[in-house]
Specification:
Elements: H1 4-20, H2 27-30, H3 36-52, E1 57-63, H4 67-73, E2 79-84, E3 88-89, E4 93-95, E5 104-113, H5 124-130, E6 131-141, H6 158-163, E7 168-173, E8 189-194, E9 197-203, H7 211-223, E10 234-239, E11 244-245, E12 251-255, E13 261-266
Parallel strand pairs: 1-10, 3-7, 4-13
Antiparallel strand pairs: 1-2, 5-6, 5-10, 5-11, 6-7, 8-9, 8-12, 12-13
Helix pairs in contact: 1-3, 5-7
């Protein structure tokens, strides 16, 4: 396991990369014996730094929920990160050109919680009962860690992704709210276009067979650390699609059919 000083050094490197726009190297290459628990310890240390700097936690994100993404990283579990107040953008927002390093977009459902969720036995039914609304959303991913090491060719692993706050960078919520009873989340889909060209499509069933299942997983994982999902928080349940690269000048539009649409523009 990493020492506390090593954890803090990695967290500081990530924070500096985000502030300067200059990526840091692979954590998994620097610390090859690093465990998933170490990675979450780095994430918590970075979250604490952000809170001390004045940022406020508004929720959570769940990633790596699709089989395609899990196969790509040779894992069998999702990951999670923390949402902050400065990550929230309005639908149709223009994203400043220097805001992110290598932004990508995912389409998913966001859960707005009306009651807390905690404990090791949280079920899908518990999640739905604790949910006030479900909202179509776009997640902006970014990577403060290089995607691949130039010298060795080694690609980042889940250790790098988790340390990097699950590649979490931004969230855009749609304007239409739905109670869990109003929509069939497994059949809720998104058609995601970049500059009016369809890039990806997907259904909610691709997220662990039901988007609420990831939130149950998150509540169970957090309980191991004495944490929980609180009332009023936003939880991104996991993407329907593979990430879409967002380049300067790109408009990203996600059509959720009867559930509306969400878009943003990258300056």
């Amino acid at each position: 396991m990493l020492s506390q000083s090593e954890i803090l050094r990695v967290a500081e490197a990530l924070d500096n990369a985000e502030k300067t726009g200059q990526q840091t190297g692979l954590v998994s290459l620097l610390h090859p014996a690093m465990t998933l628990d170490d990675a979450y310890a780095v994430q918590r240390a970075w979250v604490k730094q952000k809170q001390e700097a004045g940022r406020k936690v508004i929720g959570w994100k769940i990633g790596l929920t699709s089989k395609a993404m899990q196969y790509a990283l040779n894992i069998s579990t999702p990951d999670s990160g923390v949402l902050f107040d400065d990550m929230l953008f309005e639908d149709g927002a223009s994203i400043a050109a220097d805001r992110f390093i290598q932004p990508r977009i995912e389409a998913e459902l966001a859960f707005i919680m009306k009651a807390p969720l905690s404990g090791g036995n949280v079920s899908i039914s518990d999640v739905l009962t604790a949910t006030a609304y479900v909202v179509p959303a776009l997640e902006i991913l970014d990577t403060r860690i290089v995607r691949a090491d130039r010298t060795s060719g080694k690609s980042r692993t889940i250790i790098d992704t988790v340390s990097d706050n699950a590649a979490n960078a931004g969230i855009i919520l749609g304007s239409q709210l739905f109670t869990p009873e109003q929509i069939d989340m497994r059949w809720t889909g998104a058609i995601v276009s970049r500059n009016a060209t369809v890039e990806e499509t997907g259904l909610g069933a691709g997220v662990l067979n039901h988007p609420a299942r990831g939130i149950a997983w998150l509540a169970q994982r957090l309980s191991q650390y004495g944490d929980y999902i609180d009332a009023g928080q936003i939880v991104l349940a996991g993407s329907f699609i593979r990430p879409v690269e967002a380049r300067h000048g790109d408009t990203i539009h996600a059509d959720f059919g009867p559930q509306g649409s969400v878009s943003c523009y990258f300056e």
